[in-house]
Amino acid sequence: MVYLAQRTPPRAHLAIDYLGSVEAPMKYAIAALAVVASACLLSSPAAAQSRRDVAIQRCIQQAQARVGNSFYRDRARVANYRACMHRYGFRP
Q1: Which parts of the chain fold into alpha helices (H)?
Q2: Of the chain's two ends, which shows fewer C-beta atoms within 10 Å, N or C?
Q3: What is the pLDDT of residues 4-20, one digit of tens each?
Q4: 85 φ, ψ to 5°?
């Protein structure tokens, strides 16, 4: 009987371990949340728009260089521009 009185109750022991083990993962979760937030800021719509602007510039230059700037060649220039934009992964 003396042996049972000296032991700590199993539930109290588990509660201490549980509370101690929760603090470390919370720190990692907060750090991971900060990393995800910074990644979202870096991949903002402004960065996507600048990539699209660069693709538009390159495709216009390429279409004018390949087809020319003639009034009668508009359809060919538009087709060239569209194909170029699709190659870059954007809608024309």
Answers
A1: 2-6, 10-42, 45-67, 74-88
A2: N
A3: 555 555 555 544 545 45
A4: -65, -40
